[in-house]
Design goal:
The protein is built from 53 helices and no strands. The relative contact order is 0.02.
């Protein structure tokens, strides 16, 4: 754009200036204001600058006048405090005269408001105190000429306000609002601004007189502007005058007259917005008599309008509903505790009931129901806070029966509002309308959770009664809505068994028989929600096995419906996991059901969940030998998927091969996870038959059981065709991990050699190699438990393979994720397997320098996670071993550590001296503390690093004294955790120059 910086020659005359402003303005808005201000400000330094500005204010172009005013706002902000008193007085008089002249000429709001803002900037930035600015400007407006400040000092604000005509009053209201708005942004604690805020405590008297007059005038425009200015002053007062009741009272005295606008049809909407704003953001502004007055207005004027809008389905009712909600939230104490005596309390509750009774669906044409949730959330929050904060000895509040009655009615209204629309209506909804209805249901169920905390079992009885009643009437949308609510309460209901007798009425009804009868025409959503209820209330069904046949039959029947299969599979998995012991007799039937789902077109999610459900039941079978036949049946289906994958791969269809192979491995992992002993299995303290348990454990070592493991391991053969697929690699790792968590032998507790071979088949380019390395880490950790059998040969093989990966990487930054995984493996060696790195003449010990150098490179690398793992490795290696797997190991480790102390010390000091990241300092402190506490020569090498040329090249912000002090501190702390970290952080900050000094 032309006019950017030095490319524009400053104007030398009014005509040039006006031409420049117009040209810049027309060339584009992006930098117009900045550019024009820059050029006009250059003019203001000329002797004729004020005359030029005065002439520009007389331009025929409104934009020129606007920018002339804006220029002085900028100049006052920059140079205001430097003005002498005479110059300041001259600027003040010119600004006032411009405002008067332009307002008399009928200037538009844009320029007049900008001049009001400029006058406010003058008041804030001028070194001279401007006493009674409103009276000064008001008197000038009223006379039509320039009145001096001294002449306005003793004027009566009430008389002057009465003397102004409508247009003059509006201009003065704009100036008044500008004062309140712009001064509110100034920090009252700074000396430069405290005087301005003190002046506002006096100015509010003139402003309130002006507002009182504006509220009495018959001109609706003046009253509307008065309301806006009133709100601006109230917003100013909220943070500034919490302890200034005298100043605040001037505004509070206006509430009665301002509230009259709520009764005026021409101003009602503006007034509703303003009073709602104050009710929501500054409730304490209104005093008791104010609230009573507003309550009467809500009853007499807002209520009829809202009821009319609700009846007509008119969106114009939203502002009235917002006002009712804001008033209700602000007066929730009286509405809850004094519903009979509080003005407007009954009105508020009744209107919120009416809102929920009104026709329409939330998210579609009904916006008010969403607003109503806000009020009811506040209502129940107050109820719960009050009830549950009472001491047990205190009598219950007298209002509790009334609150229970209100909330019981609310539950029924919310339930009715949550009913899904008929299909013919819903199909025409937009995505936004669908999402709006969904959000309302979620918000409503959150509200119901809060209500349940108060009502408890009574609410559960009400919801079950609604389901049964709707079921009798075949009103399936109503049944679904009540089940949706019940589903949301599941965790709370199941916390104890107090509601079991109520739930019996539901689960003992014909509900699940009906929804399971697919010959009946029932909305899909109702069946889906019924499925979700079964998944959520599995604990209850577990305690009441008599309900299992109907529920399980319904769920398996739902699997055949594509739109219900995912929900049904999820609930089957949850229910069978919870009720596994009660369903062992149904296992054969479930296996047959699964055969119907396991075809080539079966959905992977459904297969996984159903397989997991059946596996959970298999886990509950006794004795262990009984698990073999059903397990083989399940594995047969997995093997079919693997064979399909191989066939597709042979035909060149890798996509299909991947689909079947990954699905099969995921299903296999799901079986393994569900065969794990559940954490909540009760322990029989009288059962001490060790011989029996020993026999059960030994079962998985016999040939019959090993056949199961061979079949499981055989499934890994699919990796021969999918070895480059990351999802397949990760799924295979999940299969291996499913057995790691077990403490007893089992079908998925595979020999450690299986994991080793899996790792050995990988290359550094293998997808998800970091996941394979993590799996190896878990194996080593599990086999490091005190009661585990040691597997040194397997761990040695793992380490040799990891060394190969390190050599192939070359540097940790080549692939930080793999580098971290490799280092983590070596971290897990300590203490039980660390001797493998130090066995004389072993292949692994010969690679020890490679391993250690790689970890040192990781500490110096910019990659966070390898650095953290390497720091952990060195900290563990330096500290004395808690267990020494072989004699003399500690001494061998110490010899190696001593050889690396100089290099490690230098790396740590360089990182702490500024090369590292602040977020990593705590991790770097660990090996540093270990060195100081365990290596006698560490002080010498740390000192050498601190005073080396290399450290000086990193930072020159700390001198020798600071370095010596740092070394003295950390050595003196001898590894104290918190204090060492603090010292390191302080030194790092000094090296980076983010603190003034270090000492």
């Amino acid at each position: 754009m032309e006019g950017n910086g030095s490319s524009v020659v400053p104007p030398q005359s009014v005509a040039e200036a006006e031409t420049l402003v117009k040209r810049l303005y027309q060339s584009g808005p992006a930098k117009t204001i900045t550019e024009i201000n820059d050029q006009l400000l250059k003019l203001q330094h000329a002797p004729e600058g004020w005359q030029l500005a005065d002439a520009l204010m007389s331009s025929s172009d409104q934009n020129v006048r606007f920018f002339a005013a804006n220029t002085f706002t900028v100049k006052l902000n920059n140079d205001g405090p430097k003005l002498d008193s005479d110059t300041a007085r001259t600027i003040q008089m010119r600004l006032v005269s411009w405002l008067v002249r332009l307002s008399r000429q009928g200037e538009g709001a844009m320029v007049i408001r900008k001049l009001c803002s400029t006058l406010t900037t003058f008041l804030i930035r001028s070194p001279s105190l401007w006493r009674r600015p409103l009276m000064h400007v008001g008197a000038s407006l009223q006379t039509g000429g320039l009145v001096t400040e001294d002449e306005a000092i003793d004027l009566s604000a009430e008389r002057l306000s009465e003397a102004l005509n409508s247009s003059e009053t509006v201009v003065l209201l704009w100036f008044s609002a500008s004062l309140a708005d712009e001064v509110s942004r100034l920090d009252s604690n700074t000396p430069a601004h405290s005087q301005v805020h003190r002046q506002m405590e006096e100015t509010v008297q003139d402003a309130s007189a002006l507002l009182a007059t504006a509220f009495r005038t018959p001109d609706p425009k003046v009253r509307a502007e008065g309301l806006k200015a009133f709100l601006t002053w109230v917003n100013y007062a909220q943070p500034m005058w919490p302890r200034k009741p005298e100043a605040l009272q001037h505004l509070r005295n206006l509430v009665e007259s301002a509230a009259q606008a709520l009764t005026d049809p021409t101003l009602q909407h503006d007034a509703l917005d303003i009073f709602r704003d104050i009710l929501e953001s500054y409730t304490s502004f209104f005093q008791s008599d104010h609230m009573q007055r507003i309550g009467r207005i809500v009853s007499e004027y807002v209520q009829p309008k809202l009821l009319e809008a609700l009846h007509d389905g008119d969106a114009e009712g939203v502002p009235y509903g917002q006002m009712v909600t804001a008033f209700g939230v602000a007066n929730v104490l009286d509405i809850v505790e004094h519903p009979e005596t509080s003005d407007g309390a009954n009105t508020v509750i009744r209107l919120h009931f009416d809102i929920l009774k009104a026709p329409g669906y939330p998210g579609d044409e009904d916006e008010l129901s969403v607003l109503s949730i806000e009020f009811w959330n506040t209502y129940i929050e107050y109820v719960n806070d009050t009830v549950f904060s009472q001491d047990a000895e205190q009598p219950p509040p007298t209002w509790i029966p009334y609150a229970k009655s209100v909330l019981a009615q609310l539950i029924e209204l919310l339930w009715a509002k949550m009913c899904t629309p008929p299909a013919n209506l819903a199909k025409n909804w937009t995505d936004a309308e669908h999402e709006g209805f969904k959000e309302f249901r979620l918000d409503a169920t959150d509200l119901m959770l809060s209500i349940f905390v108060f009502l408890g079992k009574a609410m559960l009885q009400q919801l079950v009664a609604l389901i049964i009643r709707s079921l009798d009437n075949k009103n399936w949308r109503a049944v679904e809505a009540a089940m949706f609510c019940l589903n949301a309460l599941a965790d709370n209901v199941l916390e104890d068994q107090a509601g079991d007798d109520v739930l019996a009425g539901l689960f003992g009804s014909r509900l699940f028989r009906d929804v399971g009868d697919f010959s009946q025409t029932i909305p899909l959503q109702a069946r889906r929600t019924a499925i979700d209820v079964l998944g959520s209330y599995g604990q209850y069904v577990e305690r009441h096995a008599e309900y299992l046949p109907d529920t399980v039959r319904f769920l398996f029947a739902s699997l055949e419906n594509a739109q219900l299969s995912h929900s049904a599979a999820k609930s089957i998995a949850a229910l069978c996991s919870a009720c596994r012991s009660s369903l062992t007799g149904e296992l054969e039937g479930f296996l047959q059901q699964y055969q119907l789902l396991s075809g080539p077109t079966a959905d992977p999610y459904t297969k996984e969940r159903v397989l997991g459900a059946i596996s959970a039941i298999v886990q509950a079978l006794k004795p262990e030998s009984a698990k073999v036949p059903p397990l083989l049946a399940l594995l047969e289906n997995i093997e079919k998927d693997m064979q399909m994958a191989k066939s597709y791969a042979a035909d060149g269809d890798l996509d299909a091969a991947t689909t079947f192979g990954v699905m099969g491995l995921n299903c296999l992992a799901t079986i393994g996870m569900n065969l794990q002993n559940p954490e909540d299995v009760p322990i029989n303290v009288y059962d001490d038959d060790d011989e029996q348990h020993s026999g059960e454990r030994a079962f998985w070592d016999n040939e019959e059981a090993k056949e199961v493991q061979k079949r499981i391991m055989g499934c890994f053969s699919v990796l021969e065709v999918l070895g480059n697929d990351g999802d397949a690699i990760e799924a295979a790792c999940h299969v291996l991990r499913s057995g790691f968590a077990e403490t007893e032998p089992g079908p998925f507790v595979l020999p450690a050699s299986v994991t080793v071979r899996f790792l050995q088949q990988c290359y550094v380019t293998t997808p998800r190699l970091e996941f394979v390395l993590s799996t190896a880490c878990i194996l080593i950790t599990q086999q490091s438990r005190s009661n585990s059998k040691r597997i040194p040969d397997e761990v040695n093989a793992i380490c040799e393979q990891v060394v190969t990966f390190i050599q192939q990487l070359g540097h940790p930054s080549q692939d930080p994720s793999i580098a971290q995984g490799c280092i983590d493996v070596f971290c897990r060696l300590i203490p039980y397997y660390i001797h493998l790195l130090f066995e004389p003449n072993s292949a692994l010990s010969q690679q020890l320098p490679t391993i250690l150098n790689f970890t040192l490179q990781a500490i110096q690398s910019p990659d966070i996670f390898p650095r953290r793992s390497a720091a952990e490795f060195w900290a563990k290696l330096i500290r004395p071993l808690s267990i020494e797997p072989r004699a003399g190991l500690q001494q061998d480790v110490a010899v190696v550590v001593a050889a690396y102390v100089p290099q490690l010390s230098q790396i740590l000091i360089y990182q702490i001296g500024g090369l590292g990241q602040r977020s990593e300092l705590d991790y770097l402190c660990e090996p540093l503390k270990a060195l100081i506490a365990n290596v006698p020569s560490a002080k010498h090498w740390l000192e050498a690093a601190l005073f080396s040329d290399g450290f000086s090249a990193i930072t020159d912000r700390v001198g020798d004294a600071e370095k010596s002090l740092f070394l003295k501190k950390i050595v003196g702390l001898r590894g104290d955790n918190r204090k060492t970290k603090d010292v390191v952080r302080e030194f790092y900050a000094a090296c980076r120059g983010t603190v003034v000094s270090y000492g």
